[in-house]
């Protein structure tokens, strides 16, 4: 029976990097961030509802959702965030469920990449939870580098989530991402071997 694994962790802890490694081993990835974009793409029912609720100001010149405007709005008015989530979340769930069912039907093991799995209590929607772990200081460092953020902004984003140590304690398996990318790859391969997904890892000796 193919499995559904919820992959989570903290912001910038390495989920996408781990998903890429798992793809090499035949896992199929359903990505919450991608589904969130699809939910409000041009011509979607999500975008139509957003225009009905927030007006044409919600659109940019290309007729797509104006992310900067909406981001500012929900940041300043928490009740607007609830309204936006009430539109977008059910559609995101629908897209992810549909993609998951399709992949399972095709016989694939599925990775659900869900950054806020614990925050949104989604443990029951997957067979197992794997947490990609790194320290908060490394999260902050990688986030500053990747998103070109100040240390204050990076800290604020990291501390707005459930602490990564706590997430690790709630996981079925923890993937250590304290080292470099090669070590990460080997940690993923070890887990796959232990769990019987593969007989022998490729044990690659490059960083690719
Ligand atoms: P988010 O939830 O914020 O999208 P994520 O958990 O998917 O993040 P990644 O995008 O995989 O995290 O990693 C965050 C950044 O850190 C990326 O720029 C990635 O290349 C880098 N990174 C990940 N793992 C390592 C590592 N072991 N060594 C060095 N850099 C790493």
From TrEMBL:
UniProt-listed HAMAP family: Dephospho_CoA_kinase
Gene3D superfamilies for this protein: P-loop containing nucleotide triphosphate hydrolases
GO cellular component: cytoplasm
Keywords: ATP-binding, Coenzyme A biosynthesis, Cytoplasm, Kinase, Nucleotide-binding, Transferase
Similarity field: Belongs to the CoaE family.
UniProt name for this protein: Dephospho-CoA kinase
UniProt pathway annotation: Cofactor biosynthesis; coenzyme A biosynthesis; CoA from (R)-pantothenate: step 5/5
NCBIfam families reported in the protein's UniProt record: dephospho-CoA kinase (TIGR00152)
GO terms, biological process: coenzyme A biosynthetic process
GO MF, one annotated term: ATP binding
Amino acids binding ATP: 12-17
Substrates-to-products reaction catalysed: 3'-dephospho-CoA + ATP = ADP + CoA + H(+)
Function: Catalyzes the phosphorylation of the 3'-hydroxyl group of dephosphocoenzyme A to form coenzyme A.
Lineage top rank: taxon: Bacteria
Gene symbol of the encoding locus: coaE
